[in-house]
Amino acid sequence: MSPVHTGAEALELLRTLVDEAAADPAFVQAFVPRCEGAVEAAVALTDGLRRRLGPRPPIDAGAVQVGAALRGVGQLVSPPSPAEGRRLLLARGLPDHLASLSLTLEGGPRDGLAIEALLVVLAEVLATGERDPALEAHVVERLARASGHARWRVNEIADSVFEAVATRGRERHRRDSPA
């Protein structure tokens, strides 16, 4: 397997895994577009933060995109299991730091997670057009600490990025939802 460094490459891997899993077509019809939306949100989120905050804190945008694409891969195994999804990704040659992003859970414990893992969860939330104030506050705190910028300034910048990504998520949802 060729290395996976971007969201597009991760989506290609995801489609291969979906085909091999012979997953229920109704599930696939919802699952793959959700992953595509999460990658779109991850790109906008990491680009927006980097453009507005600069190079600090260092964020591995590729890891965030890969994590957004593959976070739900555990749903392709029977019975569904995030840990089995991670093992599946490791067997495909994904490095542990990327395969482990498939374990990040919305609403799960956030302390100790890498900033990339937090951004994966946030990208998926924003991709639906929703906002999660508690998660956003945690992300802002981590970004402020890592960047050396004042928390209020990071909050101001991040909030505008988060809202722009969520707005795109709402627009995508309206566009992709059946009338």
N-to-C SSE string, H for helix and E for strand? HHHHHHHH
Major sheet details: none
β-strand number: 0
What proportion strand?
A: under 5%
User: How large is the count of helical segments?
Assistant: 8
- Please tell me the overall pLDDT: 90
Helix-strand makeup class: mainly alpha
User: What share of the residues lie within helices?
Assistant: 55-70%
Can you walk through the features of this model?
- With 179 residues, the protein is mainly α.
- The chain is built from eight helices and no strands.
- Helix 1 packs antiparallel against helix 2, helix 2 (25-53) packs antiparallel against helix 3 and helix 2 (25-53) crosses helix 6.
- The chain starts with 6 loop residues before the first helix and ends with a helix.
- The chain has one domain.
- The radius of gyration is 16 Å and the shape is globular.
- The mean pLDDT is 90.
